[in-house]
Amino acid sequence: MTTLLNIQCSPRYETSLSRVLSARFIEQWLLSNPNGKVITRDLMKTELPFIDAHWLSGAYIPEEKHTSEIADALKISDALVLEFKTADEILIGTPMHNFNVPANFKAYIDQIVRFNQTYNLNGGMLEDKRTTIILASGRLYTIDAPEHYSNHVNGFLTSVLNYMGIKSIQFVLAGGMRAVNLGQETLENHAKKFETSILEAIKNY
Ligand SMILES: Cc1cc2nc3c(=O)[nH]c(=O)nc-3n(C[C@H](O)[C@H](O)[C@H](O)COP(=O)(O)O)c2cc1C
User: Fold this and answer.
1) Ligand 1 centroid – CA 13 distance (Å)
2) At what angle do helices 68-86 and 103-112 cross, to 10 degrees?
3) How far is the CA of 7 from the centre of ligand 1 (A)?
4) Does residue 202 have its Cβ closer than 6 Å to ligand 1?
5) Is 137 close to ligand 1, i.e. is its CB under 6 Å away?
6) pLDDT tens digits, one per residue of 125-183
7) Separation in Å, CA 1 to CA 26, 100, 156
8) 132 ligand 1 Cβ < 6 A
Protein backbone atom coordinates (compact mmCIF):
# COMPACT_ATOMS: atom_id res chain seq x y z
CA MET A 1 0.00 0.00 0.00
CA THR A 2 1.36 3.41 -0.99
CA THR A 3 1.23 6.15 1.63
CA LEU A 4 0.97 9.81 0.70
CA LEU A 5 1.92 12.30 3.40
CA ASN A 6 -0.14 15.44 2.82
CA ILE A 7 1.48 18.44 4.55
CA GLN A 8 -0.65 21.59 4.78
CA CYS A 9 0.17 24.88 6.46
CA SER A 10 -2.16 27.64 5.27
CA PRO A 11 -3.90 29.54 8.09
CA ARG A 12 -6.95 29.57 5.82
CA TYR A 13 -9.16 26.58 5.08
CA GLU A 14 -12.10 26.89 2.63
CA THR A 15 -10.60 30.11 1.27
CA SER A 16 -7.10 28.70 0.84
CA LEU A 17 -5.93 28.05 -2.72
CA SER A 18 -3.14 25.71 -1.59
CA ARG A 19 -5.61 23.61 0.40
CA VAL A 20 -8.27 23.57 -2.36
CA LEU A 21 -5.72 22.51 -5.00
CA SER A 22 -4.16 19.95 -2.64
CA ALA A 23 -7.63 18.43 -2.06
CA ARG A 24 -8.06 18.17 -5.85
CA PHE A 25 -4.62 16.54 -6.13
CA ILE A 26 -5.55 13.98 -3.46
CA GLU A 27 -8.86 13.20 -5.19
CA GLN A 28 -6.96 12.39 -8.39
CA TRP A 29 -4.14 10.60 -6.56
CA LEU A 30 -6.65 8.25 -4.93
CA LEU A 31 -8.09 7.41 -8.35
CA SER A 32 -4.60 6.36 -9.47
CA ASN A 33 -3.88 4.68 -6.11
CA PRO A 34 -7.18 3.05 -5.07
CA ASN A 35 -5.47 1.22 -2.23
CA GLY A 36 -3.39 4.23 -1.26
CA LYS A 37 -3.46 5.79 2.19
CA VAL A 38 -3.35 9.54 2.80
CA ILE A 39 -1.95 10.85 6.07
CA THR A 40 -2.59 14.54 6.65
CA ARG A 41 -0.17 16.64 8.67
CA ASP A 42 -1.89 19.98 9.23
CA LEU A 43 0.72 22.34 10.64
CA MET A 44 -1.98 24.76 11.83
CA LYS A 45 -3.09 21.99 14.19
CA THR A 46 0.36 20.72 15.19
CA GLU A 47 2.36 21.88 18.18
CA LEU A 48 5.55 23.19 16.58
CA PRO A 49 8.00 24.66 19.08
CA PHE A 50 11.17 26.30 17.81
CA ILE A 51 14.22 24.14 18.42
CA ASP A 52 16.00 24.99 21.69
CA ALA A 53 19.29 24.17 23.47
CA HIS A 54 18.01 20.78 24.75
CA TRP A 55 16.90 19.85 21.24
CA LEU A 56 20.25 20.84 19.77
CA SER A 57 22.42 19.05 22.31
CA GLY A 58 20.24 15.93 22.06
CA ALA A 59 20.35 15.81 18.28
CA TYR A 60 24.11 15.27 18.28
CA ILE A 61 24.52 12.70 21.09
CA PRO A 62 23.38 9.06 21.27
CA GLU A 63 19.91 8.37 22.66
CA GLU A 64 21.24 6.54 25.75
CA LYS A 65 22.76 9.83 26.88
CA HIS A 66 19.50 11.80 26.60
CA THR A 67 18.28 13.47 29.77
CA SER A 68 14.54 13.77 30.38
CA GLU A 69 14.69 17.43 29.20
CA ILE A 70 16.34 16.35 25.96
CA ALA A 71 13.86 13.51 25.46
CA ASP A 72 10.99 15.98 25.97
CA ALA A 73 12.49 18.49 23.56
CA LEU A 74 12.95 15.84 20.86
CA LYS A 75 9.57 14.15 21.29
CA ILE A 76 7.75 16.14 18.60
CA SER A 77 10.72 15.85 16.25
CA ASP A 78 10.82 12.05 16.75
CA ALA A 79 7.17 11.74 15.77
CA LEU A 80 7.41 14.08 12.76
CA VAL A 81 10.62 12.45 11.49
CA LEU A 82 9.07 8.98 11.72
CA GLU A 83 5.94 10.12 9.88
CA PHE A 84 8.01 11.77 7.15
CA LYS A 85 10.39 8.80 6.80
CA THR A 86 7.66 6.20 6.47
CA ALA A 87 5.69 8.03 3.77
CA ASP A 88 6.21 6.78 0.20
CA GLU A 89 5.21 10.06 -1.44
CA ILE A 90 4.85 13.62 -0.24
CA LEU A 91 2.40 16.41 -1.08
CA ILE A 92 3.09 19.88 0.28
CA GLY A 93 0.46 22.62 0.00
CA THR A 94 1.90 25.95 1.03
CA PRO A 95 1.15 29.65 0.69
CA MET A 96 3.94 32.07 -0.10
CA HIS A 97 4.32 34.39 2.88
CA ASN A 98 6.82 37.19 2.38
CA PHE A 99 8.58 35.45 -0.49
CA ASN A 100 9.13 32.18 1.37
CA VAL A 101 7.17 29.48 3.23
CA PRO A 102 5.10 30.47 6.30
CA ALA A 103 6.85 30.36 9.69
CA ASN A 104 4.98 27.20 10.77
CA PHE A 105 6.40 25.33 7.80
CA LYS A 106 9.93 26.58 8.55
CA ALA A 107 9.47 25.39 12.17
CA TYR A 108 8.39 21.98 10.79
CA ILE A 109 11.48 21.79 8.57
CA ASP A 110 13.71 22.58 11.56
CA GLN A 111 12.12 19.61 13.38
CA ILE A 112 12.61 17.07 10.57
CA VAL A 113 16.06 18.01 9.23
CA ARG A 114 17.91 16.10 11.92
CA PHE A 115 21.41 14.67 12.22
CA ASN A 116 21.58 10.86 12.06
CA GLN A 117 17.84 10.73 11.36
CA THR A 118 17.35 12.37 7.96
CA TYR A 119 20.94 13.34 7.08
CA ASN A 120 24.45 12.45 8.23
CA LEU A 121 28.02 13.32 7.31
CA ASN A 122 27.67 11.29 4.09
CA GLY A 123 24.60 13.21 2.93
CA GLY A 124 20.84 12.61 2.87
CA MET A 125 19.63 9.46 4.65
CA LEU A 126 16.15 9.26 3.12
CA GLU A 127 15.23 7.19 0.12
CA ASP A 128 14.02 9.33 -2.72
CA LYS A 129 10.25 10.04 -2.56
CA ARG A 130 8.15 11.65 -5.24
CA THR A 131 7.29 15.05 -3.85
CA THR A 132 4.80 17.58 -5.21
CA ILE A 133 4.72 21.14 -3.92
CA ILE A 134 1.67 23.29 -4.59
CA LEU A 135 2.65 26.89 -3.99
CA ALA A 136 -0.13 29.49 -3.75
CA SER A 137 0.83 33.14 -4.12
CA GLY A 138 -0.79 36.51 -4.64
CA ARG A 139 1.51 37.45 -7.52
CA LEU A 140 2.91 35.44 -10.41
CA TYR A 141 6.31 33.77 -10.12
CA THR A 142 6.48 31.70 -13.29
CA ILE A 143 9.86 31.88 -15.00
CA ASP A 144 8.58 34.47 -17.52
CA ALA A 145 7.12 36.71 -14.78
CA PRO A 146 9.10 39.87 -13.93
CA GLU A 147 9.10 38.98 -10.21
CA HIS A 148 10.11 35.33 -10.55
CA TYR A 149 13.47 36.08 -8.88
CA SER A 150 11.60 36.99 -5.65
CA ASN A 151 10.29 33.43 -5.26
CA HIS A 152 12.51 31.98 -2.54
CA VAL A 153 10.30 28.94 -1.97
CA ASN A 154 11.41 26.76 -4.89
CA GLY A 155 15.14 27.07 -4.23
CA PHE A 156 14.75 26.79 -0.47
CA LEU A 157 12.54 23.68 -0.49
CA THR A 158 14.61 22.02 -3.21
CA SER A 159 17.78 22.50 -1.12
CA VAL A 160 16.14 21.22 2.08
CA LEU A 161 14.63 18.14 0.39
CA ASN A 162 17.83 17.38 -1.56
CA TYR A 163 19.77 17.64 1.71
CA MET A 164 17.72 14.76 3.14
CA GLY A 165 18.06 12.71 -0.09
CA ILE A 166 14.86 13.65 -1.90
CA LYS A 167 15.47 14.47 -5.55
CA SER A 168 12.13 13.81 -7.31
CA ILE A 169 10.49 17.16 -6.77
CA GLN A 170 7.86 18.94 -8.84
CA PHE A 171 6.27 22.33 -8.25
CA VAL A 172 2.81 23.59 -9.18
CA LEU A 173 3.05 27.38 -9.13
CA ALA A 174 -0.45 28.60 -8.32
CA GLY A 175 -0.04 32.35 -8.53
CA GLY A 176 -2.41 35.21 -9.12
CA MET A 177 -4.45 34.85 -5.91
CA ARG A 178 -4.35 38.61 -5.55
CA ALA A 179 -7.45 38.94 -7.77
CA VAL A 180 -9.36 36.57 -5.46
CA ASN A 181 -8.06 38.29 -2.31
CA LEU A 182 -9.27 41.61 -3.75
CA GLY A 183 -12.70 40.15 -4.55
CA GLN A 184 -12.22 40.49 -8.32
CA GLU A 185 -12.54 36.77 -8.96
CA THR A 186 -13.94 33.73 -7.17
CA LEU A 187 -11.64 31.14 -5.64
CA GLU A 188 -13.55 28.45 -7.55
CA ASN A 189 -12.85 30.08 -10.94
CA HIS A 190 -9.25 30.82 -10.08
CA ALA A 191 -8.61 27.25 -8.86
CA LYS A 192 -9.91 25.89 -12.20
CA LYS A 193 -6.93 27.52 -13.97
CA PHE A 194 -4.63 24.99 -12.30
CA GLU A 195 -6.67 21.89 -13.17
CA THR A 196 -4.30 20.92 -16.02
CA SER A 197 -1.21 21.43 -13.85
CA ILE A 198 -2.68 19.23 -11.12
CA LEU A 199 -3.58 16.49 -13.60
CA GLU A 200 -0.08 16.74 -15.14
CA ALA A 201 1.47 16.45 -11.67
CA ILE A 202 -0.53 13.24 -11.06
CA LYS A 203 0.46 11.88 -14.49
CA ASN A 204 4.10 12.22 -13.50
CA TYR A 205 3.40 9.78 -10.68
C1 LIG B 1 1.44 37.36 5.60
C2 LIG B 1 1.28 37.21 4.11
C3 LIG B 1 2.37 37.39 3.28
C4 LIG B 1 2.23 37.23 1.91
N5 LIG B 1 3.33 37.38 1.11
C6 LIG B 1 3.21 37.20 -0.22
C7 LIG B 1 4.36 37.31 -1.07
O8 LIG B 1 5.48 37.50 -0.64
N9 LIG B 1 4.17 37.16 -2.40
C10 LIG B 1 2.94 36.90 -2.94
O11 LIG B 1 2.83 36.77 -4.15
N12 LIG B 1 1.84 36.77 -2.15
C13 LIG B 1 1.95 36.91 -0.82
N14 LIG B 1 0.85 36.76 -0.02
C15 LIG B 1 -0.42 36.33 -0.62
C16 LIG B 1 -0.60 34.80 -0.48
O17 LIG B 1 0.52 34.12 -0.97
C18 LIG B 1 -1.84 34.35 -1.25
O19 LIG B 1 -2.99 34.93 -0.71
C20 LIG B 1 -1.99 32.82 -1.26
O21 LIG B 1 -3.17 32.48 -1.91
C22 LIG B 1 -1.99 32.27 0.15
O23 LIG B 1 -2.16 30.85 0.13
P24 LIG B 1 -3.52 30.20 0.64
O25 LIG B 1 -4.61 30.73 -0.30
O26 LIG B 1 -3.33 28.74 0.46
O27 LIG B 1 -3.72 30.62 2.05
C28 LIG B 1 0.96 36.92 1.35
C29 LIG B 1 -0.14 36.75 2.21
C30 LIG B 1 0.01 36.89 3.56
C31 LIG B 1 -1.19 36.68 4.46
Assistant:
1) 14
2) 100
3) 17
4) no
5) yes
6) 999 999 999 999 999 999 999 999 999 999 999 999 999 999 999 999 999 999 999 99
7) 15, 33, 31
8) no
Residue ranges per structural domain of the chain: 3-43+83-203
Specify the pairing of strand 123-124 against strand 119-120: antiparallel
Mutate to test the pocket of ligand 1, among 44, 137, 193 (most ligand atoms within 8 A of CB): 137
CATH hierarchy code of domain 3-43+83-203: 3.40.50.360
Q: Which amino acid, residue 55?
A: W
Which of left, alpha, beta for 116 (phi over 0: left; psi -120 to 50: alpha)? left
Q: What is the side-by-side order of every strand in the sheet holding 89-95? A: 37-42, 3-8, 89-95, 130-136, 169-174
